[in-house]
Each structure stands twice: as C-alpha cells, then as structure tokens.
C-alpha cells in the first residue's frame, strides 16, 4: 500500500489501529468510573 | 526575517504570557497545591493535551524529523508507541494515582513515591535522579528553542536563546502548573495546525505519498524498510521493541508526566482524557517523522538534519503561513520546557529544601522558594545551553530512557502491587537508572541488540519483584498504605473512603 513493503505498511497503519482498539476498549471498560467522582466538585 | 513571522511570534508570546498572568490572578500562587498542581482542578481536555505536548517536546520538531530524514521508515517505530502513550498512561495509573496522591497528601511525583514507599532514601534518590535528568532534558529544550528562534528571526543564537528562555520562565514563574497546563493546551492546538499544514504542503510538493515512496525507493530502497538505512537494524527486535516502549510504556515512569494525573480534577478525568489523547496523537505523532522522510526528496542536500522541519516549512509555505508554523515549532519546544522547568523546581523545593533543609517553611515561603529555584535552574540551563552541547535527539533519548527505566516499576507497582515495598523500590530505581545509563554510555545496544530502555526496564522490574518478595518479612508494606491502595482502587468518591492521610 502507498508503495511501501508489507512490513512497513503494518508498522505505519497497524499500530494506530491497535491503539484505536485499545482506546475504545478502555472507554467501554471504564464506564463505571463515574461512581468514583459522584460527590466531587466540577473541574475548572 | 519576515514581518509576518515576527508578528505571529509576538502575538504567540503575548498570549502565553497573558495566560501566566491570568493563572496567577486565579490563585495559582496562593498556596503550594495551587502553584504545583493547579489546585487539582484540571479537566480532561487540558489534562490530555498538557500530557501530550509535555511528552513530545522540541524533539518532535527536531529529533523526529531528523530521524525520519536519516533512517527513513525505521523512525516510525518511535511513533508506533507514542500514539498510545497517553491513553496507556491514563488507563493504567491515572485514576488510582490521582486518588492515592490526594489521600496521602502528595504534591510532587517524588513526594508521592515516599508516601507509598516510606523512606527518606526514596525521596533523596528520586529527587536527585529527577533534578539531574530533567535538568538535562530542560537543557535540550532550551537548545531547541534557541536554534528555532535563531533560524526564524535571523538573530544570533545567544540572543535568540535568551528571548526563548525568558518567555518560558516568565509565565512559569507567574502561574505555576495552571499556567503551564493552559499554555500547553494552546500550544498543542498550534502544534497540530502547524504540523498538519507542513505535512500537507510536503505531500503536495512530492505528488502524494505513493509517488514519494517510489522516488525514495529509487534513491535507496532500504529507506522504505522497517530496518533503517542500509538495513542497519535488520532483525534487531530488541532495539525496535525498545523504540516502541520509550514513548508508550516508558512514559509511565516520567515524573513530569505522571504529575498530570495528580492535578486532575477528578479520578474520572483520566477516562475522557485518554480518549482525547489518542485522538490528538493519531493526527500529530507520525507527522513530523513523515515530513522528515519526505524531505529526503524535497531537500536532498540538507546540512543539519535537525533543521529539516524548519527548512521544509521555509521552502514550501507562503510567508504568512510560515509565521504560524514557526510559532507552532516554538510552541512544541516551550510546552515541554515549561513543564520540565516547573517539575525540576518543584522537586528541588518540596523534595529537597522542605523535606531535608527547612521542614517548617510556610506555604507562602514555599511558593517563593519554588519560584526562586525555577529561576535558578532556568538560568543555569541557559548558561549551559549557550555552549550548545550534544544534539537534542541524543539528550532526549538518553534522559527519557533513564527516567523510564528508573521510575516505571515504582509508579506502576505503587497502585497495582500490594507487596511492592521500600527495599524493592529503591533497588528498582537504582538498578533501572544504572543499567539504562551504562547501556547508553557504553553503546551496549550494539553488541547486545537491546535498546537501553528495554534493558533498563527489564532490570528495574526484575529488581522490584525479586527484592520486594525477598524482603517481605523484614520490610512489610505498612497496613495504612495497603488500606489507602485499596481505597484508591475502589470506585467511590475520595471523600467517602475515610482513609488516613499519613
């Protein structure tokens, strides 16, 4: 893709996809963190 | 020197100085928590972008471009880890560190370590390592700032350095952490716009990515590989993995970054900040490396590779836009330099002066001591930077590798492993710093095929585990610390835990 060898394509595009998946997973798994801040002040 | 560029820079400097004054009026200097942590009321967007801009530094505009220019796509190993550095940091230690630090009353990332691993030795070793390494890191940013300003304005390096350092010190001294965090936010936006603009112009110049890669391949096909020019790193997975780790896992051990967790408004701030950090990184992180790679065709006869981004901007962009881009470059440099300067001054004042010299200093005295030390460190950094020591890339990779190796297990285990004790933490810090330093200085990465960061982290993690387990009977973790760790882990408001803040 884009004139790059396969390994380089994976390095350039594979890692960003991996981190997108990680971030989505984190956002899903941390939905209940709201309980942690129930009574606290709002941020600046 | 063109007038549009100067106008943008003056406007930019006025805005960041204004933020410093605003933060000071907003109470940043009223007490030490306000000065060092912005009163722990920083929201998710600001947290994400101060974390990212601080970790990226002038390295992104000097070192990253130079690496892409010199080694081709091999450079992307560094970007591969960097994209996830923010979310990894926030998801693994963000929430728990925010709670633990507040419950224990810690105001600096080194004080936090002593609260978790109670011993003056932890404070002394941690503070000494931090002051030395972050001091060197500040130096790298000053050099980058001076070089950038000299190039943009045409002024002599010494004068350019003086102006860059003076402005950074002005708003850091005035507004403390709050000024640093809000200027970092503003600087991140400028950095993103500027970098994307340069990359777009560079891609247009070379006829698109595919055409550029074909041209680079015709010059030297090894530049398109993942193993560097002339396949110098072929099969050296230990170096590639280390390059991924430096700006991902490694940054969980950087004292100036983990301080951002302690300043968050609420534990849940870490969640949204993680999302924002990834979003920002997806657009920003790989771009300077890519511009460096494209410059192989655009500027084949470039003399100093560290100036590659500046030179590409100068060649391709109209003067009006060059001003914005140059402001972006200064923003990247300044957003890291201010954080490092504040962190080094904070550690020197809180962890050395107040802890070991004057334990009864009042809050107001400590704010002024912190300001004085920030000023002193900045002035020493300026004088050394005048001598233009080694390249920015060399200093940044050295300091970040050693910091990550020294502190990573200590910060992660602080909230995740109940058996991590004081002897384990001390051994881990000393061995991690020693191994990474030896690896760098003796160039052991060459014969061993292991990146200094990888070697350092393996060593410090092994030391933490082995020594902690071996010394559980003679140095158990105190009950109140285990109770606070449990409270930090539970999902409930901090105020509901009722845990001692010993």
What can you see in these coordinates?
The complex is a heterodimer of chains A (44) and B (502). Chain A has 44 residues and is mainly α. Chain A has a domain at 1-28. Chain A is built from one helix and no strands. Chain A has one helix spanning 6-29. Chain A is rod-shaped. The relative contact order of chain A is 0.09. The mean pLDDT of chain A is 86. Chain B has 502 residues and is mainly α. Chain B has a single domain (3-393), classed as Sodium/glucose cotransporter, CATH 1.20.1730. Chain B has 21 helices and no strands. Chain B has helices at 3-28, 32-37, 44-56, 63-71, 76-104, 109-116, 120-153, 157-206, 209-219, 237-246, 255-262, 269-284, 287-298, 308-316, 319-357, 363-385, 392-416, 422-441, 445-448, 452-470, 479-489. The radius of gyration of chain B is 22 Å and the shape is globular. Chain B starts with a helix and ends in a 13-residue tail after the last helix. In chain B, 65% of the residues are buried. Chain A binds chain B through residues 2-5, 7-8, 11-12, 15-16, 18-20, 22-23, 26-27, 30, 32-44, and chain B through 38-39, 41-44, 46, 73, 76-77, 79-81, 83-84, 87-88, 91, 95, 99, 178, 209-214, 217, 224-226, 244, 264-271, 274-275, 278, 281-282, 286, 491-496.
* H and E string of chain B: HHHHHHHHHHHHHHHHHHHHH
Task: Specify the biggest β-sheet of chain A.
Answer: none
Coarse morphology of chain A: rod-shaped
Helical segment count of chain A: 1
Largest interface: A-B, 31 and 52 residues
Order of helices and strands of chain A: H
Descriptive tags:
heterodimer, A: 44 residues, mainly alpha, 1 helix, 55% helix, 0% strand, B: 502 residues, Sodium/glucose cotransporter, disordered C terminus
Outline of the structure:
The complex is a heterodimer of chains A (44) and B (502). Chain A has 44 residues and is an all-alpha fold.
Any chance you could write out the topology, listing elements then pairs?
The complex is a heterodimer of chains A (44) and B (502).
Chain A: H1 6-29
Chain B: H1 3-28, H2 32-37, H3 44-56, H4 63-71, H5 76-104, H6 109-116, H7 120-153, H8 157-206, H9 209-219, H10 237-246, H11 255-262, H12 269-284, H13 287-298, H14 308-316, H15 319-357, H16 363-385, H17 392-416, H18 422-441, H19 445-448, H20 452-470, H21 479-489
Helix pairs in contact in B: 1-8, 1-15, 3-8, 3-11, 3-12, 3-15, 4-13, 5-10, 5-11, 5-12, 5-17, 5-21, 6-7, 7-8, 7-15, 7-16, 7-17, 7-18, 8-13, 8-14, 8-15, 8-16, 9-13, 10-20, 15-16, 17-18, 17-20, 18-20
